[in-house]
């Protein structure tokens, strides 16, 4: 009578062909993919540059952009150019241009901001207020494709 044994997955017979396990590889061998992250605004966004999570800065290691393009998810095609600073300690900051973006989108103390990296240095975002309810926007001019940050009001938060 043949003896049977269970594999770590609980299936199969022992002694046959040394097959491979159907278990996924351990997390340390998987590629690091950071497509989404969030920040909570603890300091005045009009005074302080905003720090992204360290893991996102690590993800961009070697391809550190000088600027990124921010877009509110529901605010038309308008992209906001924001300069990026890296401090050499794996920290990335949204700097010049962030203030105009924050004003136009009602970003304030206590806001929760969800970012999604779309590639090509584009980040789409959703803003949630201090009650954790999402802020929605509409654009005065959906057809404008002007990438100028001179006007600080392409999106308006309905009251």
UniProtKB/TrEMBL annotation:
Residues 11-20 have a biased composition (Gly residues). Its main location: nucleus. Gene3D superfamilies: DNA-binding pseudobarrel domain (2.40.330.10). Residues 1-26 are annotated as: Disordered. Pfam families: B3 (PF02362). SUPFAM superfamilies: DNA-binding pseudobarrel domain (SSF101936). GO terms for cellular component: nucleus. PROSITE patterns: B3. Keywords: DNA-binding, Nucleus, Transcription, Transcription regulation. One of its GO terms (molecular function) is DNA binding. The keyword Membrane does not apply. It is found in: Nucleus. PANTHER family: B3 DOMAIN-CONTAINING, B3 DOMAIN-CONTAINING PROTEIN OS03G0621600-RELATED. This is TF-B3 domain-containing protein. It comes from Lolium multiflorum.
